[in-house]
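Internal tracking record. Fields below are filled automatically when a chain is submitted to the structure queue. Please do not edit lines marked as system-generated. If the sequence contains nonstandard residues, flag them in the REMARKS field before resubmitting.
Queue: standard
Priority: normal
Entity type: single polypeptide chain
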Amino acid sequence: MKLSEAQRDEMLGRFDAYLSERAESNTLAQKNREAIKRHCLNNAETKDYRESMKRRFGIDPLTETDKFPVMKESFSWKKFRNQLEEQLREADSASTFPLFVIAGLLQNVIGMYQLTKMSYQEWATVTPTNLVETPIAPLHGLTFPREVGAQSPYPEVYAAGLNMKLRAKKYGSMYSIEKELLDDDQTGQFKQQTGALGEYLQMLTEVLVYGKLASVSGASYAGFDVPTSETKPSGESTYPWNSAGFAAGGGKTRPSSFGALTQANLQTGIQQLMQQKNVLGIVMNVNPKRILASPFYRFDAAILLNSAYYPSGAASAGGVGGAFAINPLQGIADLSISRFMPNNSGVFAANSKAWYLVDDTKPWFQVLVKTPVSVEQENPQSGESFNRDIYRFKCSTRMNADIIDPRFAWQGNDGSV
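SYSTEM-GENERATED OUTPUT FOLLOWS
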């Protein structure tokens, strides 16, 4: 079938719009990864450690990896220890080696922390902070303009907002390794296991983000208890998902009855968000562009978003969705799949039926990072390290994540349907 010039221009226009939306989405994910990368090296704790190593040994082990090639397969801790003792020839050479072990551990942990890509980076906003408590005050806009009469004063407008604070919390674990295993490691176990520390910190962030998004009481994963949203305003009884509208104003953030990820339910979510109102009753500029779901909906969502023709079955000729009708959802949204999507019982499962529709161009969900990765070592000449000939490390992160304004999201299903 030959397309007319108008049809061709329309198709090209839709394709250009789709590419533009994808580019915006990729920009957000890239921006988040770059922010994490910068903060991994420049947060206060890591920066102090790098500067002290630079002053004492003339090397920054986290950036000058050519001089301290821990990540290379040929690197040997035993060989490095011998070289270190020959070069330093000082009384505290034995205590110097653990400093470089920490540096190597940081290289592994930070490397895996940055390489582990989680889906929250595609739609949440990562914000580095140096505060214990970070003020977050979402503004809901100004009062609407009015007609100004001849020689009449302009009407005063005021802003409506909420006063919130989000506190950085500490998460982490203890890791022990035998001295003999570190010296004689030929299989790369030390690199793999320490790298997992960084990978798990990213996974923990993913669990925290989706747990706060769902805000289900009793949510837990592998012993990690995820609280409900900490930004709930005092005047709201149902937050962040409300089917009747918020007490402070605004529209719905979920339907009265949950449903599966279908074309009809997705269209309902889009329509509701595009008529969302702020606390002043003014329509907000919400443009839902991303679906969040578990692997349970991976193929269903792909069909809905990528089918050229109407994906829900053809209606009678001449009706909406008739034979060979176009798919109105094609390219309208991107898809983010997470293995850590909780259901309505607070269970994080890959077969969760929960799904959300969000506007990923607005910073309505914040991931505040104070210290991405921190590593501390127990004194090897005391405690369990001395008694058992082991190295003991604490690996931690200080951050928090939460909803700032739920009016930019739609909970299509909490996993109960």
